[in-house]
Each structure stands twice: as C-alpha cells, then as structure tokens.
Design goal:
This protein is mainly alpha-helical. Helices cover 65% and strands 3% of the residues. A hairpin with a 2-residue loop joins β2 and β3.
C-alpha cells in the first residue's frame, strides 16, 4: 500500500534543479552571445531556445506532479517509450548528417537527439524488468532479454557515433542490475563480450584514438587534437578564486570550441572562479544526496531502481563532463546536464527529474506508520 502526498515532493531537489537551470541559462547567454552576433546578427540565438526548453521542461514537471497514478510504471508506457526511442534512433540514420554524425532528427529547423531519450527509456525498462524478475535474476538465462535490448540500443548509439552516451547507458544499466541482485560472476562472464564489442567499434574511428592520445599528452599536438583540452584548462586556471566576473571571460571568444555546450563548465570556472565552479559541483552532489534519499524511501523496488537510475545518470554525466573539462578524461561529447546548451538534453533531463519528484511524493504506508 502507498500513500500519495500531492505536491509533497522533495523541495530541496526541486530547488537544486532550479538553481542549476538558472546558472545554465546565465552561462549559455554569456558563452554564446558573441558567437550569436557573429553568425546570426543578434545575441539571443542560443539563449531563447534554451529558455524555451527550460520553460517546457518545468511545465512538464508541474503537469506530472499532481497525477495520482504512477504512469511511469505502466507497461504500456514503458514499452511504448522504449519502442518509440528505438524508432527515433533508427530514423537518425535517414536524416542529413550534422558535423559528420547522425545523432539528430531535424524537423522544421528544430533538432532532437533521441539518445537523450534512450537514457530514461532504458532506466524505466530495466527497473520494470528487475522488479518483475527479481526472484530469478540469479539465473544467467533471465538476463538475455534486457542485455539484448541494451546491446541493440548501444550499437545504434555507437553507430551515430556517440561513445560517451553509450558508455553512460552501459554503466547505469549495469549498476541497476547489480543493485537488483545480479551476481558479480554474471557481470564478469557477460562483461567480457561487451568490452570486446565496445573496443572493436571504438577503434573503427581514428579520431577516437587521437582523442585518447590528446588526453594523455595534449602538448604533443597543441594546435590540433590537444588544443581544446589546453584551452579548457587555461579557462579554468585563469579564473582564480572569484573569476573574471560574468561576461568577462576571454576563452569563449573563439578560443575554446564548444564553449556553450560541452565545455560550459570551463567558462564557469573562468568567469565565476573556484567559488562558482565549486558551487556548481556542490549542487550536483546535493542532487545526488536527495535523489538517493528518494530512492531509499521509495515504496517499492521499481520506484527505488528508477529513482536510483535517474539520479546516477544525471550525476554521473555531470561528473564525466566536469572531469573532461578539467583534463581528467578524454573528450566524449557529453553535455553538462541542466547547464549546457541543448534542448534535447535539457527537456529529457527535466522529464526524468519530474519522475524522480513524483516518486518522492509516494510513501509506503507501512513505513509511514513507523
């Protein structure tokens, strides 16, 4: 039995989300205004779509919160979303390539990245499967279906190519299986073919190997593959304790590529300094704390797994992005959740956060009595 508390959602998590969105909007404008003027003759070309995406995502959350039934647990919704995501991932390969990749679906001057939706659809699918098969997860044959689905999605994402999202999806689904009770031996047995498959596709693209070399020794090619890493470190290092002040950064002036997307955290460090960069990181740790607390208090196994998966997906992506910006990992193309420019990422993240907040409104009646 569950007790549903309308609008009794986790206010700290919601406030943290709003704070990250606010910082994101400010920094998207700061990092993209000059680029917008240069290319499109006005400073708001990137800011307005991001603002619309934030508003749409927040409205979606507000519409989800009062729904009494946990719609995200409905098999029709879960498998429908999974099938829709699969079709959209396939459709990407019939769209015109953008920057030599097939990651987007373009309609009426708008682009959507289905791999962002793949994260939440796979999290809900794995939560549902583990909940239904919790008594047989110790049998390796029971893992064939979810792993087949995971392999299919990862192959489609790798072929786009989007190795960062593929790694993230694999890690999150693996953690969910481990939390659900899958034996460590099964991970070893099944993990070897996964690793071999990933390495095979990884080195099909020469630029991936170049990125790894650039990460290990960026000064080896400072004007080529190592340029972005060097410029990112320069941006963060030049910020000092309090930064150059909002809008006063120089690396965004066509020195640091992708300053408003993958490397927005570098400009946070340059303009807001160590204090601002540490504050953003602290907000993500608060998000992790509240999300895992929601998972622990959730009334059933499905909700616990879904809440943990959503929380870890957003936090892990943030940690991966920040590590790359600081030169602690090779570039993967993953945006910083809720901050980087990108409506697909922003709306998908807010949709998953809406589910997380909805779970926080549901309590077990037995636990409530205690």
């Amino acid at each position: 039995m569950e007790i549903f508390r309308p609008y009794g959602f986790d206010k700290t998590l919601f406030g943290t989300t709003l704070a990250l969105i606010a910082v994101g909007l400010i920094m998207v404008f700061s990092t993209s205004a000059i680029l917008s003027i240069d290319k499109y003759r006005h400073p708001f070309h990137f800011f307005f779509p991001q603002l619309i995406g934030a508003a749409a995502g927040l409205i979606l959350i507000l519409l989800m919160l009062p729904i009494r039934k946990p719609f995200y647990k409905n098999p029709t919704f879960i498998y429908g979303l999974l099938f829709l995501t699969f079709l959209l991932l396939l459709l990407c390969f019939f769209m015109p390539a953008f920057n030599k990749t097939n990651r987007w679906i373009a309609l009426m001057n708008m682009r959507f990245q289905p791999s962002e939706l793949a994260k939440i659809s796979l999290i809900l699918f794995f939560a549902s499967f583990i909940d239904r098969k919790k008594d047989t997860l110790h049998e390796i044959k029971s893992l064939f279906l979810p792993l087949a689905v995971l392999v299919l999605f990862i192959l489609l994402i790798i072929k786009q190519p989007d190795y960062g999202t593929a790694i993230l999806v694999f890690l999150i689904c693996s953690i969910m299986l481990f939390i659900g009770g899958v034996k460590l031996l099964h991970f070893i047995v099944l993990g070897i073919p996964f690793a071999a498959l990933f390495i095979f596709f990884l080195f099909q693209k020469s630029y991936v190997f170049d990125r790894i070399l650039a990460f290990i020794a960026p000064t080896r090619d400072p004007l080529g593959d190592g340029f972005q890493i060097i410029q990112s470190k320069m941006a963060v290092g030049s910020g000092g304790l309090f930064g150059a002040s909002f809008g006063a950064g120089t690396q965004k002036l066509f020195f640091l590529p992708c300053a408003h997307t993958d490397y927005i955290y570098a400009i946070v460090g340059e303009e807001l300094g160590l204090v601002g960069a540490a504050s953003v990181l602290l907000l993500f740790f608060i998000f992790l704390w509240r999300g895992l607390l929601i998972s622990w208090k959730a009334p059933d196994l499905f909700s616990q797994l879904a809440a943990a998966g959503i929380t870890l997906a957003i936090f892990s992506q943030a940690l991966m992005n920040i590590s790359i910006v600081l030169g602690l990992g090779p570039p993967t193309g993953l945006p910083l959740p809720l901050l980087s420019f990108g409506r697909s990422s922003l709306i998908s993240s807010l949709f998953s956060i809406g589910i997380l907040l909805h779970i926080s409104q549901r309590k077990s009646s037995a636990r409530q009595k205690k």
